[in-house]
Amino acid sequence: MNFTQDQLLASQKANIETLFGLSQKAFEGVEKLVELNMQVAKTAMTEAAEATKAALSVKDAQELLALQASLLQPNAEKVAAYNRHVYDIFAATNADLAAAAETQAADVQQKVLASVDTAVKNAPAGTESAVALVKSAVAAANNAFESVQKAAKQAAEVAESNFQAMTSTAVKASQAAGKSKRAA
How many helices (H) and strands (E) does the chain have? Predict the structure, then answer.
């Protein structure tokens, strides 16, 4: 299929719009990550000031140990929560980029199929077997692409599930450690 100048320009314009759209999504993810880190830094400074004041008001070693134990357990939970937020930001950004890639791939598939159909209509007599082979190859490529997409989505879901389980286990272990220190 021969492309006209208008078709090429339209294709280039669409590609540039897609590039800028993807760039915007990536920058939004970075912006969320910066906002999260700024909030964490502000909170950490406030908590450090409060912990320093509390440490300066301690009267004996027993009270210092109790203060230390009370500060350690929430920190593990905060680290787990921070990691969860970072993961959520990356997952959301990745989902946006993947959706855009799927849309782009669907558009390319549609154009390829349209090209094949046009070529089939203009194919000379006696080339039916070659046309059938091309159609079969295109269908096989589409099926393979869809299978890869499904496998990637399933892998992402498994990774998400494993991350949540790991985070939950870490928080529970931290809480159990904090309880056992307080009991001792």
Answer: 3, 0
Dump pLDDT digits (tens) for 67-112.
888 887 778 788 888 988 998 999 899 888 888 888 887 787 787 7
Q: Which residues contact 152 (CB under 8 A, 6 or more apart)?
A: 98
Domain borders along the chain are 5-183
17's tokens:
């719009």
| Sequence-ordered list of residues with C-beta below 8 angstroms from that of 40, at least 6 positions apart, any chain | 82
Cα separations in angstroms, 2 against 6, 44, 104, 123, 175: 12, 62, 21, 14, 67
Alpha-carbon distance 113 to 105, whole Å?
12
- pTM surpassing 0.85? no
Residue 36's Cβ-count burial label (10 Å; 0-12, 13-18, 19+) is middle
pLDDT score, position 1: 46
**Residues 1 and 115 sit within 8 Å (Cβ to Cβ):** yes
